[in-house]
């Protein structure tokens, strides 16, 4: 593992994963939808995986792994986005975190597969075989449906109608009488004025012309980069205390599972923004304590702070990606989330970079990322809250997402400054609109009668001014 070529292979693979969302996302996600951007990279990854397994020299291996990582990133991104758009708000978090558990299970299964294969070329061939079996089912649309939300957001009404009908039939719902108001489910699509409108596609460049959407994307990309980049500062402290059989690998996989479980139990209850803020604070505080007091702390306290920092940084990275998927509009969700995943993967590249240089500059790396973690605490306060809310579809809906107030009133009783000045009774008020109208009419009649038939107002009136 100390061979520099191993780290260059990891660097090439991570670079491919991080760079893949940048060029392909605008045309792929904006033009061809979620299903095509899943099937096409999956099919292309098969010959690239075989090329990696049969590489004859170092340059061929690096280039093939670079492209192979890019294709895997495209499949992962399309699956992540389609899963978000398929779920309703109450189940969105649990479905996404359940998929993260499968991701962790695959990471834990990989070392066993490597031991069974015995050679890295056979391992690469086994992975490519699994991808080929998955790609063999590409012809079945029922295994991976196109996102009806994306089709309707881009004004592809006919395709969106067919996708909704497929979903309704798959769930055993009748489109004719499924609406609670008794109207057909697709009546609005049928009654669209002027026929089917022209499809509207949006590229990732639209993000830069917005204000709120770009701000949210920038903050969440920054926190995802910090959550993945600062992790090396904590794992380095645990290396001397653990076994040497792939201890960092199993530690990171186990901590990711614990972080996902923590998010499942807390995010829906306390909100996305609050848990992201808490995780970032724990990451920054743990990093600063280890940075300033490492030589004065006891061994068990160093281990405790390092484990806490790993768990918190895993939660920050996972929640940042999930949060970004909820606040980005549907028309640019794939491309925008690709940029944020690219920032997340670039932070992961800090580990092989530091290992290549034998941890030279580790102190500066620790200082920079600890400062970034503290700085991101202030920026998280500018994010909106997306818990139990529908996904925004258009850019206009994304621009209306603003941060909620910092303090909310209690549910059970009002705050003191919201109490009325005069106490009200539970019964009907005597000053209802009808009573007030009768009072005004009677007052006007009284004033007209006192004015006299000649209209000489003020004669004999003690309140009238003297002539």
Automatic annotation (TrEMBL):
<dbReference type="Pfam" id="PF00083">
    <property type="entry name" value="Sugar_tr"/>
</dbReference>
<feature type="transmembrane region" description="Helical">
    <location>
        <begin position="300"/>
        <end position="324"/>
    </location>
</feature>
<keyword id="KW-1133">Transmembrane helix</keyword>
<dbReference type="InterPro" id="IPR011701">
    <property type="entry name" value="MFS"/>
</dbReference>
<feature type="transmembrane region" description="Helical">
    <location>
        <begin position="362"/>
        <end position="383"/>
    </location>
</feature>
<feature type="region of interest" description="Disordered">
    <location>
        <begin position="391"/>
        <end position="416"/>
    </location>
</feature>
<dbReference type="Pfam" id="PF07690">
    <property type="entry name" value="MFS_1"/>
</dbReference>
<protein>
    <submittedName>
        <fullName>Solute carrier family 22 member 31</fullName>
    </submittedName>
</protein>
<feature type="transmembrane region" description="Helical">
    <location>
        <begin position="122"/>
        <end position="145"/>
    </location>
</feature>
<feature type="transmembrane region" description="Helical">
    <location>
        <begin position="331"/>
        <end position="350"/>
    </location>
</feature>
<feature type="transmembrane region" description="Helical">
    <location>
        <begin position="93"/>
        <end position="116"/>
    </location>
</feature>
<feature type="transmembrane region" description="Helical">
    <location>
        <begin position="274"/>
        <end position="294"/>
    </location>
</feature>
<dbReference type="InterPro" id="IPR020846">
    <property type="entry name" value="MFS_dom"/>
</dbReference>
<dbReference type="InterPro" id="IPR005828">
    <property type="entry name" value="MFS_sugar_transport-like"/>
</dbReference>
<dbReference type="GO" id="GO:0016020">
    <property type="term" value="C:membrane"/>
</dbReference>
<feature type="transmembrane region" description="Helical">
    <location>
        <begin position="246"/>
        <end position="267"/>
    </location>
</feature>
<keyword id="KW-0472">Membrane</keyword>
<dbReference type="GO" id="GO:0022857">
    <property type="term" value="F:transmembrane transporter activity"/>
</dbReference>
<feature type="domain" description="Major facilitator superfamily (MFS) profile">
    <location>
        <begin position="209"/>
        <end position="467"/>
    </location>
</feature>
<feature type="transmembrane region" description="Helical">
    <location>
        <begin position="62"/>
        <end position="81"/>
    </location>
</feature>
<keyword id="KW-0812">Transmembrane</keyword>
<dbReference type="InterPro" id="IPR036259">
    <property type="entry name" value="MFS_trans_sf"/>
</dbReference>
<feature type="transmembrane region" description="Helical">
    <location>
        <begin position="38"/>
        <end position="56"/>
    </location>
</feature>
């Amino acid at each position: 593992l100390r061979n520099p070529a191993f780290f260059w292979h990891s660097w090439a693979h991570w670079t491919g994963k991080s760079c893949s969302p940048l060029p392909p996302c605008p045309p792929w996600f904006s033009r061809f939808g979620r299903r095509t951007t899943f099937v096409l990279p999956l099919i292309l990854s098969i010959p690239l995986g075989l090329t990696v397994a049969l590489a004859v020299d170092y340059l061929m291996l690096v280039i093939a792994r670079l492209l192979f990582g890019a294709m895997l990133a495209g499949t992962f991104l399309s699956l992540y986005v389609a899963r978000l758009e398929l779920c309703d708000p109450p189940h969105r978090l649990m479905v996404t975190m359940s998929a993260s558990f499968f991701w962790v299970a695959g990471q834990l299964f990989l070392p066993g597969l490597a031991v069974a294969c015995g050679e890295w070329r056979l391992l690469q061939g086994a992975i490519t075989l699994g991808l080929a079996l998955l790609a063999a089912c590409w012809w079945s649309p029922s295994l991976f449906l196109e996102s009806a939300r994306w089709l309707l957001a881009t004004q592809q009404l006919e395709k969106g109608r067919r996708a909704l009908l497929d979903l309704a039939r798959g769930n055993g719902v009748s489109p004719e009488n499924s609406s609670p108001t008794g109207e057909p489910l697709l009546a609005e699509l049928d009654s669209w004025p002027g026929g089917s409108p022209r499809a509207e596609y949006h590229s990732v460049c639209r993000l830069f012309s917005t204000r709120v959407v770009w701000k949210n994307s920038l903050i969440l990309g920054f926190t995802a980069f910090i959550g993945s980049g600062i992790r090396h500062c904590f794992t380095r402290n645990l290396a001397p205390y653990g076994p040497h059989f792939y201890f960092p690998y199993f530690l990171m996989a186990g901590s990711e599972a614990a972080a996902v479980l923590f998010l499942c139990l807390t995010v829906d209850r306390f909100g996305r923004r609050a848990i992201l803020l808490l995780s970032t604070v724990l990451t920054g505080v743990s990093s600063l304590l280890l940075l300033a007091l490492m030589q004065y702390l006891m061994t068990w306290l160093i281990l405790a702070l390092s484990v806490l920092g790993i768990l918190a940084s895993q939660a920050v990275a996972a929640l940042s990606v999930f949060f970004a998927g909820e606040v980005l509009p549907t028309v640019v969700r794939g491309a925008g989330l690709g940029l944020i995943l690219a920032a997340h993967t670039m932070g992961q590249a800090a580990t092989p970079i530091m290992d290549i240089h034998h941890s030279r500059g580790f102190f500066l790396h620790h200082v920079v990322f600890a400062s970034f973690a503290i700085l991101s605490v202030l920026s998280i306060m500018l994010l909106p809250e997306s818990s139990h809310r529908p996904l925004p579809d258009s850019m206009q809906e994304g621009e209306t997402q603003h941060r909620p107030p910092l303090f909310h009133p209690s549910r059970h009783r009002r705050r003191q400054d919201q109490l009325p000045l005069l106490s009200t009774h539970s019964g009907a008020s005597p000053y209802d609109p009808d009573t007030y109208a009768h009072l005004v009419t009677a007052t006007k009649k009284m004033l007209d009668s006192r004015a006299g038939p000649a209209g000489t107002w003020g004669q004999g009136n003690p309140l009238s001014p003297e002539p």
